[in-house]
């Protein structure tokens, strides 16, 4: 089965976040910040870091906010530093779960790979935190002055702008950056696990690891934060097979459409097209047509592993010093790990100013370079007996891009990008020629009735 050259039935745009829910989440975060920015609280935080790191302190730096967390760094007189990190309330909607899962993954990576991650000194509960700020991790600070994005981004681009790969980047710098990222992916992809989900181990024994919890993803966090999806409607357990997980992802897309209260669509026609796309994707999942590795191997996959989270030192040609932000990492279907990384262009396809086809054209110029660098590292690992020929990621990534599996896995993971990718890259591949009426005929009578009920609900809401 191969992608076709037919024009897509629809040219859908990226779905918008619920603007009201977005504002509400940042109101929660704003109230939390008022608690944080207090001299007495800062003193308590400093004392807590010193307690678990040890040594005379020199300076506590001002808080910094990332995508999902707030960190405070403490510098010590011996030259080292440690940080305390809190999930940002309102933005991180599963703070305790996210933190505990991340600690497990960081310890796994620390004990089973040579990828450098911050060493966890301590993690605690909301009850242990200053002023009840929330669960926290105290960890080693990795000295750096940049990240891999700085090596790849358009020069002079503001930190407030989304990064984009410099179209004029010299190939030597590109290969060096890609090669370092490839090494991380290769090492992360080596271990195989028994199920799909988050891992854990006995606190006293980091040799035995198992999948014991549901796969916690960025998409799940966003579905609750800015998609209005009730938490109890998300997956609550690990998955035994790839097809069962793909079906759960398809069901999440449908739940999202019914849950988001604002900004999901602008017309009855758009509502119907979004419903039809989700029904047809779910149909493919039910027929087990979305995955080829039903029983694994299941591999560790990090939703947030990208150049911005790989720290570097610019004075050494942006040599990597470590990787951070592992909270949304879980054992995933092989299809996820076997897909080439979207971040080769830094920007996601759904945000690319020139559209999906232009993104794909630019991507195809860079993918061979990344795969060559990955192959070089695979060659070394095979020569050393670390992996076998069958363990090559490069071969699978090339196939995933060529046969369109890249788009299936991406659409499955990205709810707000789903519609534009489904119609542009998935629908024709599986369902061939035809128009929207033909696709409507593939729905059951119950699904058609449900669709009209959704349209009616939208109309009543707008009255």
From TrEMBL:
Domain of life: Eukaryota
Entries under PANTHER family matching the protein: AMINOGLYCOSIDE PHOSPHOTRANSFERASE DOMAIN-CONTAINING PROTEIN, AMINOGLYCOSIDE PHOSPHOTRANSFERASE-RELATED-RELATED
InterPro entries: AGP_Transferase (IPR051678), Kinase-like_dom_sf (IPR011009)
Protein name: Phosphotransferase family protein
């Amino acid at each position: 089965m191969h992608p076709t050259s037919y024009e897509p039935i629809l040219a859908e745009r990226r779905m918008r976040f619920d603007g009201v829910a977005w504002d509400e989440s940042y109101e929660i975060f704003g109230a939390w910040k008022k608690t944080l920015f207090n001299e007495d609280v800062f003193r308590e935080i400093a004392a807590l870091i010193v307690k678990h790191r040890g040594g005379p302190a020199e300076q506590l730096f001002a808080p910094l906010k990332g995508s999902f967390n707030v960190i405070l760094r403490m510098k010590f007189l011996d030259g080292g530093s440690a940080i305390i990190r809190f999930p940002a309330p309102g933005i991180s909607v599963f703070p305790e779960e996210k933190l505990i899962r991340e600690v497990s993954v960081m310890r796994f990576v620390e004990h089973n790979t040579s990828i450098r991650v911050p060493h966890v000194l301590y993690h605690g509960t909301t009850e242990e935190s200053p002023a009840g700020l929330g669960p926290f991790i105290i960890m080693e600070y990795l000295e750096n002055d940049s990240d891999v994005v700085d090596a790849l981004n358009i020069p002079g681009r503001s930190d407030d702008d989304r990064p984009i790969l410099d179209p004029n980047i010299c190939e030597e710098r590109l290969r060096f950056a890609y090669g370092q990222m490839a090494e991380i992916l290769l090492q992360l992809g080596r271990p195989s696990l028994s199920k799909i989900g988050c891992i854990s181990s006995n606190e006293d024994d980091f040799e035995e690891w198992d999948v014991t919890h549901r796969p916690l993803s960025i998409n799940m966090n966003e579905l609750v934060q800015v998609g209005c999806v009730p938490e109890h409607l998300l997956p609550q357990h690990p998955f035994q097979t790839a097809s069962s997980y793909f079906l759960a992802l398809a069901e999440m897309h449908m739940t999202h459409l019914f849950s988001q209260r604002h900004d999901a669509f602008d017309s009855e026609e758009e509502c119907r097209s979004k419903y039809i796309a989700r029904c047809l994707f779910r149909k493919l999942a039910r027929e087990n047509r979305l995955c080829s590795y039903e029983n694994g191997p299941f591999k560790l996959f990090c939703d947030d592993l990208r150049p911005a989270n790989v720290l570097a030192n610019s004075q050494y040609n942006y040599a990597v010093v470590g990787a951070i932000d592992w909270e949304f990492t879980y054992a995933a279907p092989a299809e996820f790990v076997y897909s080439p990384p979207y971040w080769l262009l830094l920007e996601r396809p759904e945000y690319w100013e020139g559209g999906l086809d232009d993104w794909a054209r630019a991507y195809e110029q860079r993918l061979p370079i990344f795969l060559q660098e990955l192959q070089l590292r695979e060659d070394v690992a095979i020569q050393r007996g670390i992996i076998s020929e069958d363990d090559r990621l490069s071969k699978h990534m090339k196939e995933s891009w060529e046969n369109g599996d890249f788009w299936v896995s991406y659409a499955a993971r990205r709810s707000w990008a789903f519609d534009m990718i489904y119609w542009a890259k998935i629908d024709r591949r599986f369902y061939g020629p035809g128009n929207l009426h033909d696709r409507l005929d593939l729905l059951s009578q119950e699904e058609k009735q449900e669709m009209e009920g959704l349209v009616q609900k939208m109309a009543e809401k707008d009255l």
